[in-house]
Amino acid sequence: MKSSMSSRVGFPSKRASQAEEDVDCPCSPTSSSGPSFHQDTQPSPQSEGAQSASKAPASLAGEEQHGHEDRLSQRMSIPPCTSKEERIALSTAMPHPPVTKETLEELGLAYIQSNISLRIDINYDHDLQFTHDDGIKGEQKQQEARKYWQSLEAELRIMYQHNLYPSCAECNDLGSSNPTESTFFKPRLPEMFLNLKELLTMLIPDGEQGQLVQYLDIPLLLQELRHGLMDIVRLSGWICQLLTSHCAPIRDHDAQDMANHIREGAERCNVHTLVLGIEKLFALLEAMQLDVANHQVRNLRGSFIDDTVAFQQLYFQARISNGVLIVDDSRKWYRNAAASHQKLCHVVGGMSDASTPVALIHGLIGVCFSQNTPIPDTLSHDTSRLRTISAQFLDLVYVDISLWVFDHLLYRLAGPACNPSLIHGVLRMRLMILTDSDAASGLTTPEVWNRHAYAVALELTRAAFQYCQIAESTPPEAEAARTAEQLTAMYHFESQNSARTRAIARALEQTVHDYAKVYQGMTAQAISLTQRRLHLRHATSQVYRYLPDLRDLASRLAHIAVIHWRVWADLAYLVEYEEDEESDDSDSSEDGAESVQQEDGL
């Protein structure tokens, strides 16, 4: 790296010689033996103006440099010889790099402290950290980034190869054969340098900001760029040295790789490699900011959890007061859950009071009962968690149905002396693997299991034949078809009647209630630590989707219920409910009779 910082590398023109005719390079208008420029010996714009032969005022020198910047920022013509892909990129790519100060704003400390989703999620996600978005939005950002780097590569070719000479034979041929109106683009290099300086300012301590002033004088850099005098190898080497002194050790290789690509692109006159190095630089800056943000999240985790109830109450109270958040529908949802619990729930405890969220738990069980159940606004930040628990709960239901079919098949083949529970664990794993491929396809859990009914039946049949040590020559197809027919009928019956789902839901609700009674006397921090221990106990290295047991689901639901109740009981649920009770006590007997009639009608 030392050598890359020593002197400027001169770049021969793309058309400088026949031997280099097909080599791409950002070139200098001077020869390779011409004068070199060193950033550390170049005086500032003001001193340069003061010490010039003409003794021009410093302001005049500054205006001259800004003039260079303005000229570089003006629209440029796209030559006819430019490929269609590059023409599209130059015309449509975003004007700034994919990584900017604005795009990394959510990784700043102030944003982290005020991020309501993070402040809620940190209670439940024991490995919470910022990562790249791998979803649809992430793919769209990657496509935009690819177009930007393609446009930058085309821009360098046009500015420092094509435009160095007054004429281009290919452009003349294309222009004479197919004359078209010229199209233009605005150079992206000035904006790129400005964003680079902003990002480095974010990451470098205040005590070292002076280096940025010295090495990243944007008007001066743009003037060098205008005249083809920029020593990009030396600049990248300095950036590499600066970043490796502040980044995590794991990023050192990325910094060196970035500098190597830029040096290789410059020395070999390869614009593509050069731009790849610049792309790696911005990716490294983003990774460093991610590292900083995740370090802050780890350090603040304890205080965030301790303050979670007070912070959420303050945040949501402000939104309710401002009319941004309307909780009427959520209040109705809770009252319906309370009424349903009073009538149907088998959990001991009666109606909810200020400390026992049994009606809320009953409502959460209803959310898990079906993946299509609407979730109230007060639980909007828990939607992903509740949908995951719902999918896992329904997996438990369909695995239970499948094992019931297997048990009856085994009893028929081997008689009552068999013990099918011996291989239930292995079967659960196999069934989850069989149905894993469609888990993220947008299908509901019942649809996934119905789609794979025959494959599940075949696996159950093979396991039964293997358990009974039936000869391998015995074809299981007929038995598998029979099992598949029975399994499909059971799945269909469950989708229509939900008998087994209700039975498992009752068991789950009782277990959630047991956990909630324990969690009620614990702080948010203590509950989170308990959940972390349970998480580590159940954590596995399996690559297929996780099938939790009933107690695992119950502990997670109880955690959500207790924290949610502490936040929302006085904001939306309990206070209004008590007011309604007082209002009901003062109502006339006619109103009470009418209410009973309406309830009976429902």
Automatic annotation (TrEMBL):
Signal peptide: none annotated. GO terms for biological process: protein kinase A signaling. Belongs to the TCP11 family. Residues 1-79, 579-602 are annotated as: Disordered. Residues 38-54 have a biased composition (Polar residues). Residues 579-593 have a biased composition (Acidic residues). This is Tcp11-domain-containing protein. Residues 25-36 have a biased composition (Low complexity). InterPro entries: Tcp11. Residues 63-73 have a biased composition (Basic and acidic residues). PANTHER family: LD23868P (PTHR12832:SF11), TESTIS-SPECIFIC PROTEIN PBS13 T-COMPLEX 11 (PTHR12832).
